[in-house]
Amino acid sequence: MITSAKYIEAFGENNTIQAVIDGVTKCVPLDPDNTDYQAIQEWVAEGNTIEVAE
Amino acid sequence: MSTIQANLIEPSSGTTVTFGASGDTVALGTGAGVNFRSSRNMIINGNMQVAQRGTSSTDEGYKTVDRFRVSVAGLDEDVTQAQHALTSSDTGPWAKGFRNSYHITNGNQTSGAGAADRVCFQYRSEAQDIDNSGWDYTSGSSYITLSFWIKSSVAQNFYGRLETMDGTQQGYAFETGSLSADTWTKITKTIPGNSNITFDNDANNGLIIEIVAFRGTDKTGSMSLDTWAAYNSAVRVPDMTSTWFTTDDATFEITGVQLEVGSTATPFENKSYGQELEACQRYCQKLHGEVTNSMVSMQLCYSTTGSEGVLYYSKKRVAPTITQYSAGATGWYLHYENTSSVVSAVPTFDSIDSTTCRITALIAATSLQVGEAAYLRTGNAAGSYIIVDAEL
Question: Coil, strand or helix: which one is B366?
């Protein structure tokens, strides 16, 4: 279960998502074939928001 | 007795050559052997010997045995999945050289079997691996054969199923037949192709193989076994008895999983640990964690951070998710000049692709110089490691 997600910025753009999934903090690439990225997109489709990078 | 000498025997029609008939014995001469095609098993880690993430977990998903996952829902008490060590008492698989199984111990499902409940083993194959396997999967006279050993502490019939993911999804359900409690049984299922099957030539999920300990009625119903049909999410296997599911601490385990092209189950294709590990690492790779003070990378420092690229051992299926596991920031040290500092937060990863990523460590010290060299290492206690995960 995803409880939070936040972009990590690198080289001037959103590069990675730092997400807490099943209680574990993971670094997820913006790759549509990555299953965690797919899960984050479903989570966003449910009305959740990825926080902007700090 | 006649003697036939030939260099090649081919079927006159179809794809099958048959030797003998029911009740016959086809024997090899003394000292003769049969060379089976290598790399015929499309299942990676089918003997369950690689478990990079750990050997026991109460979480679902990929947590223990590589390439295999547990899927659960509706539990009152978690099940425990584990890489289980077999012994000589495991009659059947032990004699065939299997030393591990993928094992579930049921929890106490106090509210009984609910409609949405499930406990399943799953294996997922890349579509391109099926597409390039040599199986003429749109032909009803071309076959794959799935074989595996299974044992349950509860005597009952179980179901399994295949699910294709590309094009119009197709499903194929089968049963194990009644298993005797605590007795290993070898299951063999020969599965034909079908004109409705599609596999894309890509690295995405193409085929799910599922062995079902229990599924509730939300996903079960009337259906035909041993035949392909359009995938119906609401009816994946027939209605199941809930005996196993409602038995506290019931066990369910499999090993020796092999999926091969052809209509015959050949002996399990034994590989070395190194070969299986290398194949698993396309999907999961554990970095560090075997010793204390494990060197992670050389770092180039900015003012309070050090960053460097990390090269994986092998190219991953896709850009992977990267996770560091430690007791916290104290699991990591950054060395610079003559000093070592505990990092102020656990390392992070970005710029992730299928071969490399960047790791960044942050420290509170102000004495770091821009451009200064340093290195990152794990802490003085074991237990810090990185999991690179590109699973399906």
Answer: coil
